[in-house]
Amino acid sequence: MPFENAIASVAATGGSTNAVLHLLAIAREAGVDLEIDDFQTVSERTPLLADLKPSGRFVATDMHRAGGVPLLAQRLFSGGHLHASTKTVTGFSLEEESKSAVELPVRK
Q: What's the CA gap between 50 and 16, in Å, rounded?
């Protein structure tokens, strides 16, 4: 399913419920069958990896400093939570993009 990676990314970062509304709207405009139940299915099997606000403890810049989206993708990929062959905007697959991830310590 084309939107499962997006849903998993939102779930792994404690994303806002606004993401549900936006992804449903995007899917509808693209003619992709996406239902609210799909969010529950993907979320139940996706671990929380980055406890981001609005309900979490950290902000997006904290995640960026720790390794950003490539690190998130690497962790989700290594746990089998992403469709790794999906191409990114760079033309590389998520698997290829995640190989460049470097985790850095974050000091507050």
A: 13
Dihedral sign computed on CA atoms, order 23, 42, 95, 47: positive
Give, in degrees to the nearest 5, the angle at Cα 48 between 43 and 54. Answer: 95
DSSP one-letter code for 103: -
Give the pLDDT score at 105.
Answer: 87
**CA separation for the pair 81, 4 (Å, rounded):** 9
Using a cut of 0.70, tell me whether the model's pTM lies above it.
yes
Q: Please, which residues have CB within 8 angstroms of residue 30's CB and are 6 or more apart in sequence? A: none
Whether 97 contacts 90, CB under 8 Å:
yes
For residue 91, give every residue at least 6 positions away whose Cβ sits within 8 Å of its Cβ, in sequence order, or none. Answer: none
What tens digit of pLDDT does each residue of 32-62 get?
999 999 999 999 999 999 999 888 899 999 9
